[in-house]
C-alpha cells in the first residue's frame, strides 16, 4: 500500500543508478526540480549525455558502489541488472526513498503518470497493477483539462493570496474561496477581473 504526496526536491541529492532508457525517462521528469541529480553508470543515453554537458546532471562514469547512495534523498535503482538493483536497494538506509525499476516490492516510492496544466497537476497510479492503464487514463483525462486551466490556476493563486491578506473571519474567507471555483471564473476572464475589482 502506498501513500501519495508531493515532494519539494530543491537542493536535494538524487542518485540514479543506471543511465539507460528507463533512467532517462525518470530523469526527464526531474531536471526542472532544482535538485542535484547524480547518475552513476558506465554508459549514458544520448539525452543524458546532453544533460551532463549542460550540467543538468552530474555523471559518475563507472559501476555502482555502495557509498554512492550516501546522503541521497531519492534513489533510483535503474539498471537492467537484477543483482545490481538489489544491491542498490540493500545499500540504502531505512529512511531513504528508493525506486527499484524492476521490482516494485523493493520500492519505497513509485512514480505516477502525471500531466500538468500550469499549477494544476494530475497524477494517476495503479500501484503497479497496470502502468499502461495509468497511461491510458492520463490520456483520457487530458481531454477534460484544456490549456485554459493554466491561467485559471494563476488567477486562483493570486486571488487566494489577496484573500488571505484581507484577514477576514473564517466564514467570509471560506465563502470567497469557494466562490472562486464557480464555473464562470474558470471560463471567463472578465469575471476574474470583476472579482478583483470587488476588493477595491
Ligand atoms: C507512471 C509511470 C511513470 C514513469 O516511471 O515514467 C510508471 N510506469 C510507466 C510506464 C510503463 N512502465 C512499464 C510499461 C510497459 C508495460 C508494462 O510492463 O505494463 C509502461 C508503459 C509505457 O512505457 O508505455 C513497465 C514496467 N513498469 C514497472 C515494471 C516493473 C514490474 O511491474 O515488475 C515494469 C515491467 C518491466 C518489464 O518487466 O519489462 C513498474 C512501475 N512503473 C511505474 C510507473 C510504477 C507503477 C505505476 C502505476 O502502476 O501506476 C512502478 C511500480 C514503479 C516505478 O517505476 O515507479 C509510467 C506511466 C505511463 C505514463 O506516464 O505515460
Ligand atoms: N519501472 C518502469 O517504469 C519500467 C519500465 C520498463 C522496463 N522496466 C525494467 O527496466 C529494466 C531495463 O531498463 P532499461 O531499459 O533502462 O535498460 P538499458 O539497457 O537501457 O539501461 C541499463 C543501464 O544500466 C547501466 N548499468 C548496468 N550495470 C550497471 C552497474 N553495475 N552500475 C551502474 N549502471 C549500470 C547500463 O550502463 C545502462 O546505462 C528491465 O529490468 C525492465 O524490467 C521498468
From TrEMBL:
One GO BP annotation of this record: siroheme biosynthetic process
Database matches in InterPro entries: Met8-like (IPR028161), NAD(P)-bd_dom_sf (IPR036291), SirC_C (IPR042518), Sirohaem_synthase_central (IPR028281), Sirohaem_synthase_N (IPR006367)
Pathway entry: Porphyrin-containing compound metabolism; siroheme biosynthesis; sirohydrochlorin from precorrin-2: step 1/1
Pfam families in the cross-refs: NAD_binding_7, SirC_C, Sirohm_synth_M
Enzyme class name: oxidoreductase
Gene3D superfamilies with a match to the protein in the record: NAD(P)-binding Rossmann-like Domain, SirC, precorrin-2 dehydrogenase, C-terminal helical domain-like
Superkingdom of source: Bacteria
Alphabetized UniProt keyword annotations: NAD, Oxidoreductase, Porphyrin biosynthesis
Annotated Siroheme synthase central domain residues: 117-142
An MF annotation (GO) of this entry: ferrochelatase activity
Enzyme Commission designation: 1.3.1.76
Reactions it catalyzes: precorrin-2 + NAD(+) = sirohydrochlorin + NADH + 2 H(+)
Protein name: precorrin-2 dehydrogenase
Species of provenance: Ureibacillus xyleni
Amino acid at each position: 500500500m502506498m501513500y501519495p504526496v508531493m515532494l519539494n526536491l530543491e537542493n536535494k541529492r538524487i542518485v540514479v543508478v543506471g543511465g539507460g532508457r528507463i533512467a532517462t525517462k525518470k530523469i526527464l521528469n526531474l531536471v526542472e526540480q532544482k535538485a542535484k541529480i547524480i547518475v552513476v553508470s558506465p554508459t549514458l543515453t544520448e539525452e543524458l549525455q546532453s544533460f551532463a554537458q549542460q550540467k543538468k546532471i552530474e555523471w559518475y562514469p563507472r559501476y555502482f558502489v555502495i557509498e554512492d547512495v550516501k546522503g541521497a534523498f531519492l534513489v533510483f535503482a535503474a539498471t537492467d541488472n537484477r543483482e545490481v538493483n538489489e544491491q542498490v536497494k540493500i545499500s540504502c538506509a531505512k529512511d531513504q526513498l528508493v525506486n527499484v525499476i524492476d521490482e516494485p516490492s523493493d520500492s519505497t516510492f513509485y512514480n505516477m503518470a502525471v500531466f500538468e496544466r500550469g499549477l494544476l497537476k494530475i497524477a494517476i497510479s495503479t500501484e503497479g497493477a497496470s502502468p499502461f492503464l495509468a497511461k491510458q487514463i492520463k490520456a483520457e483525462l487530458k481531454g477534460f483539462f484544456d490549456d485554459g486551466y493554466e491561467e485559471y490556476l494563476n488567477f486562483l493563486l493570486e486571488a487566494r493570496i489577496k484573500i488571505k491578506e484581507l484577514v477576514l473571519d473564517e466564514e467570509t474567507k471560506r465563502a470567497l474561496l469557494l466562490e472562486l471555483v464557480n464555473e464562470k471564473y474558470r471560463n471567463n476572464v472578465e469575471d476574474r477581473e470583476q472579482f478583483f475589482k470587488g476588493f477595491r
